[in-house]
Write a structure and sequence with these properties.
The chain is of the alpha+beta class. It has five helices and seven strands. The strands form two sheets. It has a four-stranded antiparallel sheet. The chain has a three-stranded antiparallel sheet with strand order 6-5-7.
Length: 187
């Protein structure tokens, strides 16, 4: 009889330990699944005609000017935000210096493919109608940017020049000076 009692106690202790181990495993899986953000920085997923710009809350509809950035929300976790205009992306980053932006993304004006914004070439022109009137388009190729800039009586800029132009307030000034007066450049 004593052997039966001891065996039963061992079985109960084993059952308790297995239950505890299972609860720990479930808790760990739940915490991992609930962690915010992505494990890699990547361009935002945009559903054209449905997704809204993180800066102005307008629907993103023109892929040529869509942009985004990824920022670190916690070590190794990233969130990507989408914008309808390159100028809005820069304005958002300036308005939220607490965000540690790790990657910048723009669409090529011609191919509409995602580009690393820091490697792209830009056209800034009052004759380029963009969703929020900032007048900026991105291109993968420098000569294509120079050609488009000449066609639009604009300027070809590097990423550093674009950032400097934004920091000096020139993009926001362009938006308020020419809203509604710029012509749309046909592809």
């Amino acid at each position: 009889m004593e052997t039966r009692i001891v065996t039963r106690r061992i079985e109960l202790q084993l059952l308790i330990w297995l239950t505890v181990a299972l609860l720990i495993a479930i808790s760990a899986a739940t915490l991992t699944a609930c962690a915010q953000g992505q494990t890699t920085a990547q361009p935002p997923e945009i559903r054209y005609g449905e997704s809204v710009c993180a800066q102005c809350n307008m629907i993103i509809s023109d892929e040529r000017f869509a942009s985004g950035y990824a920022y670190e929300i916690s070590p190794g976790r990233y969130e990507s935000l989408a914008f309808d205009d390159i100028g809005d992306m820069l304005a958002s980053a300036a308005a939220h210096p607490e965000r540690n932006v790790t990657n910048w993304y723009v669409h090529d004006y011609t191919s509409k493919e995602w580009l690393d914004a820091t490697q792209a070439h830009y056209v800034f022109s009052e004759n380029l109608s963009t969703p929020m009137g900032h007048g900026v388009a991105a291109l993968a190729d420098r000569s294509a940017a120079q050609t488009l800039a000449a066609e639009l009586s604009g300027e070809a800029l590097s990423w550093q020049e674009l950032m400097a132009r934004h920091k000096s307030g020139m993009l926001a000034e362009h938006m308020s000076d020419s809203a509604g007066s710029s012509m749309d450049h046909a592809q």
